[in-house]
Design a protein that fits this description.
The chain has 10 helices and 10 strands. It is of the alpha/beta class.
Length: 278
């Protein structure tokens, strides 16, 4: 029998997809996306919404064969530095948010009851930079319990959309659901120029129009429907967190573009909010 995590009745209406882009987001004050995330509590998150009871973050940097939650029961999540040859100061940053073992258990229950036959637990893993970098900027106090959920890159987008649908009841418990990836993510196509590459712009624009128009099926079928889909995402790890957030938002949710900027000529920082109409 599944039980709600709290009885407060404090519901969160929105789910989010954040493009976290380069790890330098953690230190580079010139990046617009950094300032956007730093303003999250003041300008992005609704003023009348409850403070999250906990955060579930789906990061493109954790790929597993089966859905996996990190179950950190004693003390804070470890900060994982899963990037290389970056400034030394980045490896000294910490995000000691508490673990969220109750949330991890609830995620597992919801997924298994929705037809995901196997959901694993990882009791040692902390938060990778796809999780802690944006959260460090959004909730710098690091006082909200955080659970991370993996993606399965051998599955398709609809699978991840259905994963999100299964997790939607978490919002009734005050859980903030955040997908963290990149709207375009082809590291071989990065260039140190200010002009945006046409293929990246076209994919980014297509996605925005599809989401805002509520064409979620097209977004699930992006490989067939979107221009330059395999150039924008030669590997889907950074895109599937969007589908989880979209699914958790619900079929009737309204998508809103809440930030857009570019880095290295083809890395989109477009980020979205999915809101169920009142």
């Amino acid at each position: 029998m599944m039980t709600a995590m709290n009885g407060s009745g404090m519901k969160i209406q929105d789910t989010y997809y954040i493009s976290h882009g380069s790890p330098t987001l953690s230190i580079d004050e010139t990046m617009p996306a950094r300032h956007f995330l730093q303003s999250f509590q003041q300008k992005v998150y609704p003023k009348d919404a409850p403070r999250p009871s906990s955060i579930l973050i789906i990061s493109g940097h954790w790929e597993t064969s089966y859905p996996t939650v990190n179950v950190v029961s004693n003390g804070p999540n470890e900060t994982i530095y899963d990037f290389y040859n970056f400034p030394k100061s980045m490896y000294q940053l910490k995000y000691p948010a508490p673990g969220a073992p109750k949330l991890a258990k609830r995620v597992k229950e919801l997924l298994t009851s929705s037809g995901f036959k196997r959901v694993d637990e990882d009791k040692k893993r902390g938060l990778d930079h796809g999780a802690w970098v944006p959260l460090m900027l959004m909730y710098p106090e690091a006082d909200i319990p955080v659970c991370q959920l993996s993606v399965q890159t051998d599955k398709d987008a609809t699978y991840h959309y259905n994963m999100g649908k299964a997790l939607a009841p978490l919002k009734d418990d005050g859980v903030l659901i955040v997908g963290s990836g990149a709207t375009t993510h082809n590291l071989r196509m990065l260039r140190n120029t200010t002009s945006v590459q046409p293929w990246a712009q076209e994919f980014d624009t297509w996605l925005k129009e599809a989401l805002v128009d509520g064409r979620y099926e097209d977004v699930n079928d992006y490989k067939e429907k979107a221009p330059h889909a395999t150039v924008a995402h030669p590997w889907p790890d950074h895109f599937y967190p969007l589908h989880v957030a979209m699914g958790a938002g619900g079929a009737t949710s309204k998508a809103e573009l809440i930030h857009t900027s570019w880095g290295l000529s083809s890395l989109s920082y477009s980020s979205y909010k999915f809101t169920v109409p009142a």
